[in-house]
Design a protein that fits this description.
Elements lengths: L3 E5 L3 H13 L3 E5 L2 H10 L9 E5 L7 H11 L4 E6 L4 H9 L4 E4 L4 H21 L10 H13 L6 E4 L6 H10 L8 E5 L5 H9 E2 L11 E2 L1 H4 L4 E5 L6 H13 L1 E2 L8 E2 L3 E6 L3 H6 L5 H7 L2 E4 L10 H13 L6 E2 L1 H9 L5 H18 L8 E2 L6 H4 L4 E4 L2 E4 L8 H15 L3 H8 L3 H11 L2
Parallel strand pairs: 1-2, 1-3, 3-4, 4-5, 6-13, 6-14, 7-10, 10-13, 15-16
Antiparallel strand pairs: 8-9, 11-12, 17-18
Helix pairs in contact: 1-5, 2-3, 4-17, 5-15, 13-15, 17-18
């Protein structure tokens, strides 16, 4: 199997063993012992077309841990599929990483065959998601979201700048594609830039282009995204992450449609329609001095707010069924069992549609891989990520939680252990988990030790 994999782990022997094993099955592997070294190398090569497909990142590194590194990598490469490597006893933190964008986690110690099989399965999922990315039609029956889509359709052919707001994973880029495809510019380029993916030094060059020798690493003239989008649409994703000095230059372009390449004095012009997106509250960012008020109003010709998936639950199962079909790629499409459907409906989906897509793709691949009896026709609860399937094992009855399958009752210790694990998986820190459980941090520590959580 082919694909490019990044490994970052501060244990040299694990790093070497993983690299040898993954190369042996056909992967191109680049490895680093320090998170900072990996980021420096990626930033140095930011203009290269060579990117990574997968990243295996150790959770417990110092000074930058695996979650912080994952977030930095996703800023630079939003389509990167990340696997967290975790040791026994830190699984609850790895589960938190899943909610922040990791695809899955791999627990140490692991056998080499386990690693290679796991990597091949994750790469298959990555390839499926890459193949369908950006090609989907918007699927919803939610009245609020339908209202947003109708407004987007009405303003698509206008000259108004559009600001799309919503949580991570709600489908902001998909709505931007919808606007472009329904505009008078549909036959012209749709160019995209993730404003969080580049450093402040590089974003101006990426946006406006540069001339040869304009800075270290500028080996030839480069056309920027604005120039490439001439006549079409420029989508600025995560615009709230744009550095303040760069915001002033973007504002000048929006006012005049004129710009200069970095290192050049000639003024150029581009006829570009701007669609921007953010998962931040820009009014709060303005109050903190992190975003220019004049740029905010310039971008907000029309504001479209996409509701999160947890408030449009009628969309969960139709989306899940679509993702199962996409993941099957023409093979026999498995169905969702009743328990899986219930689990998907009850889960909060903090990562929204993107998290649902990852979970369903993973479950479909596990069902297709089957076992001794070959592929299964039904996706079962064990195919879902553990932090999602755990929800489905309980029904809330007042303030009590009892197993939904009364024929398989558990001991009080087992119920307590599973519920503590569930709360930990749904909160972003152990302090938050202790508050939800209404116990102090020391008590939570003792219970985690008791139950090996």
């Amino acid at each position: 199997m082919t694909g490019r994999i990044l490994i970052v782990d501060d244990e040299p022997h694990i790093l070497k063993t993983m690299a040898i094993g993954l190369r042996a099955v056909g992967f191109d592997v680049v490895s680093f012992e320090q998170a900072e070294d990996a980021l420096k190398e990626i930033d140095k090569d930011i203009f290269s077309e060579v990117k990574f497909d997968l990243a295996f990142i150790d959770l417990m590194m110092f000074p930058m841990n695996g979650i912080a590194l994952m977030q930095e990598l996703h800023r630079r490469m939003p389509e990167l599929t990340v696997v967290i490597i975790t040791a026994h006893g830190t699984v609850e933190t790895a589960v938190s990483a899943l909610k922040l964008g990791a695809y899955d986690y791999l627990q140490k110690p692991f056998e080499l065959r386990e690693l290679t099989d796991f990597a091949q399965r994750v790469m298959k999922s990555h390839e499926i998601q890459s193949g369908v990315h950006g090609s989907q039609e918007i699927l919803t029956t939610n009245p609020t979201f339908l209202g947003v889509i109708r407004m987007a359709e009405r303003v698509a052919s206008s000259a108004l700048t559009i600001l799309i707001e919503g949580e991570t994973g709600t489908g902001k880029e998909l709505l931007a594609d919808f606007i472009h495809n329904n505009s008078d510019r549909a036959g012209k380029p749709m160019i995209k830039l993730n404003c969080a993916a580049l450093s402040s030094e590089l974003i101006e060059s990426e946006l406006f282009g540069h001339t040869k020798g304009a800075f270290t690493g500028a080996m030839k003239d480069r056309v920027g995204r604005v120039e490439a989008a001439d006549g079409g649409t420029l989508f600025l994703d995560e615009v709230g992450e744009m550095p303040v000095p760069m915001q002033a230059k973007l504002l000048r372009f929006l006012q005049s449609r004129e710009f200069q390449r970095v290192g050049e004095n000639d003024t150029r012009y581009a006829d570009v329609r701007i669609v921007a997106a953010t998962n931040r509250n820009l009014e709060e960012a303005i109050n903190r001095g992190e975003f220019r008020e004049d740029l905010f109003y310039r971008l907000s010709g029309v504001r479209l707010m996409i509701p999160p998936l947890r408030v449009r639950r009628e969309d969960i199962l139709p989306l899940a069924e679509r993702f199962v079909t996409e993941a099957s790629r023409g093979a026999q499409v498995p169905i969702l069992s009743d328990t899986v459907a219930a689990a998907l409906n009850e889960y909060d989906w903090r990562g929204n549609v993107r998290e649902l897509q990852n979970a369903v793709f993973r479950a479909t691949i596990l069902a297709e891989s089957g076992g001794a009896n070959g592929p299964r026709r039904t996706i079962e609860l064990q195919d879902l990520p553990e932090h999602i399937s755990l929800d489905a094992r309980y029904e809330k009855n007042g303030s009590n939680f009892i197993p939904s399958d009364s024929s398989n009752l558990k001991s009080l210790d087992e119920v307590e252990r599973d519920y503590i694990a569930l709360v930990i998986s749904k909160t972003l820190s152990l302090e938050d988990a202790a508050r939800v459980l209404k116990i102090d941090n020391a008590t939570l520590w003792r219970k985690r030790k008791k139950y090996s959580l």
